[in-house]
Structures are given as structure tokens and as C-alpha cells.
Design a protein that fits this description.
The protein is mainly α. The protein contains 11 helices and 4 strands. It has a two-stranded antiparallel ribbon with strand order 1-2. α5 crosses α6 (130-150).
Length: 316
Amino acid sequence: MADADLRATSIREVREKISELCPSVAERAKRSSWGLKALLLLLHVVFVGTVFVLDPTLVRRTREEPWYTAAYLVLLLVTLVQYILASGSSPGYVIDAMRAGSELHATFINTSMISKQSTSKNGSLTPISRNQLERLNSRTNSSSWLQQVMNLYPPGSSSRDWTCPYCNVIQPPRSKHCHDCDKCVLQFDHHCVWLGTCIGLKNHCRFWWYIFEETILSVWTVVLYISFLRSDIDKECYLALTNQTTYELARRKRVLYLRGVPDRVYPFSKGICRNLYTFCCSREKFYILEEVPPMEELQARARPYTWREIISCRCC
């Protein structure tokens, strides 16, 4: 027991010296925690806002199906609120449980002592002073917590085996000292850097609800980005396969040399294989000017392919 007390005392002295030499370490850590929280909230807004700005189809879908965007924004708001609540929640510290238990025990002691005041011979009550009650409470509080915790361990356990060497409290089962919070936490799970707090008995449920909502929001946001990028990739691939320019695709009806050309006929296409080769591998040293095919040829391309033409790779 003496060795344990000596070890706990030396650890406390070292921590006190470090605190004296670096008084602003805790303040800087607290400021950095708040900075990280603000950064995460800002990233949520930036990522969501970017997909709405870049993807015109999403804006159009919002006009056509407002419920879709409304559901997404509600999920975003709920996730952010859950993050704020989880980051500001208490994990359930051992010292708080001790104080709560002490207050209940003190109330019980006061009530029982008042009800059992000694009676004088003439039947009058003998009052008990406040100092006497305070001394009685201070003696019984520590012993009651020790007895309560030791009852949770198997018989024969020693209190010094479960005494925290950092904050010198008796740890109930599943408790652990967190060096970031500098307190013992009930049902310690881990210290979440992103939330800036420990995850323990009192906020474990809230933490998992936040993880659940954040996961759905992240997957939904990734789907929106993939849809946006896929539309651009499909457009670029389509242009390469048909030997078109973006201008010809977007302004087909306004381009003079494309007027009258049947739909799904691409005047400058040389077949899929040659189009891809020209788009990806060709390195022409001279300027190549392409002529517009005659209308008869373009109308002939509009007819469906026969099996013979498909076998002979006319489409390629």
C-alpha cells in the first residue's frame, strides 16, 4: 500500500511540475479542439455546396423533385446538430459519479440523523449541529464509495489494485483514465479526436447515432459526386466514340453544316476504332481539314445496320 501511495504521489508531483512549466498547454489544446470542430463543420458545408454549384442536373432535379433535395438537406442539418451535441456531451466521469453518490448519501445521512435525534429526559429534542453533520458526511462519503465499488469486484480484491495513479480515485469496473481529458471515464471506449471528448457511459449512444447519420450523409454525398463526374465522363467518352466536339454536341441544331443531318448520324465519324485512335493516339504534324459528307451519304448512314455490315465491322 505504501508503494502504491508513493507512486501515485510521485506521478502527481511530476504532473504538477509540468503544469507549472507549461500552463498554456491545456488552453492551446482546447483552442485546437475548437478549431478542429469548426473546420469539420466548414468542410461539411463546402462539400455539400460544391456539388450543388457544379452539378446543373442536381439543381434541375431540385426543381422537379424538391423532396429529394429537402431530405438530403434535412439529413445534413440533423448530422451537424448531432455532431455539436456529441462533441459537447460528457462521457460520464468517475469523479462526477462519486459526487452524485456522495450527495445522495449525504441527504440520506441528514434525513436519518434528524429523524433519530436523541431525546432528553423531559422529552425535548436535542439538535445536532451543522459541523457535526459535515464531519459525519466527510467520513462516510469516501468509505461509502469505496464499499460500493469494491462490491462490484470479486471477493478478495484490494482497493489499491483499482486506484487510479493519476487522479487517485477508486475506479469501478470498465473505467479507465483518459490522458487527454485527465479524468477517469466510466465504461471508457476511446477518446475521439474529431469530437474533442471521450466516449463513455453517458454519450456512447449519442456517438453511435452520430456515426450512423454521418455514414449515410457521406455515402449520399459520394453518390452525388459520382453521378456528377460520371455524367461528364460519359459525355467525354461519347464525344470520343463519335468524333464530335463539345460545341457540335451542345449546339447541333444551331450549327449550319449540321442542319438537316439525321439524328444519331455523326458526319465526321470514321468508325469507333478509328475515332478512338484519332482521339487518343494520333499525332498529326499537319493541319487536316475535314469535309462535310454529302447528304445522300449521311441519309444512308441513318438506315439500320444489317447483319453483314455488323460482321464486316462497318460500325467500327
